[in-house]
Amino acid sequence: MKTFVLTAALLCVSATALADKIAVVGGKVFTGTAQGTLESATVLIDNNTVVSVSNGADVPAGYTVIDATGKYVTPGLVGAYTQLGLVEVGMSAGTVDSSVTTLPISATGAAYDVSYAVNPDSSLMAISRVEGVTSAATTISRTEYLFHGQGAVITLASDAQPVLKPKAFVAVNVGNAGADDAGGSRAAVWVMLENAINEVKEAPKSLSPTSDWHGINSRLDVQALRPVVKGEVPLLIHADRAADIRQVIAFKQRHPGMNVVLVKGMEAWRVADELASAKIPVIIDPEFNLPGGFDQMGATLANAARLHNAGVTIAIGMETHNIRLATQHAGNAVGHGLSHEAALAALTVNPARIFGMEGTIGSLAKGARADLVIWSGDPLEVTEAAETVLINGKVIEHTSRQIKLQERYQSFADTPQASQYIRLD
Amino acid sequence: MNNTHKRLSIIMLCCCAFWLTACSEDKAAKTEQAAKVSIDKNPFPSRYTPLAGEPTLITNVTILDGIGNKIDKGMVYFADGKIVEIGETLSVPDGVLTIDGQGKWVTPGIIDVHSHLGVYPNPSTHSHSDGNEIVKPVTANVWAEHSVWPQDPGFGRALAGGVTSLQILPGSANLFGGRSVVLKNVPHRTMQEMKFPDAPYGLKMACGENPKRVYGKRGGPSTRMGNVAGYRQAWSDAQDYMRKWDQYEADYEAGKNPKAPKRDLNLETLAGVLDGDIRVHMHCYRADEMAVMMDVMKEFNYQIYSFQHAVEAYKISDILAENNVCSAMWADWWGFKMEAYDGIRENVPMVHNTGACAIVHSDSDLGIQRLNQEAAKAWADGRRAGIDIPQQDAWIWLSANPAKSLGIFDKTGSLESGKNADLVMWTANPFSTYARAEKVYIDGGLAYDLNDPQSWPVADFELGQVGEGDSK
Question: Where is the signal peptide, in residue numbers (chain A) (predicted)?
Answer without folding.
Answer: 1-19
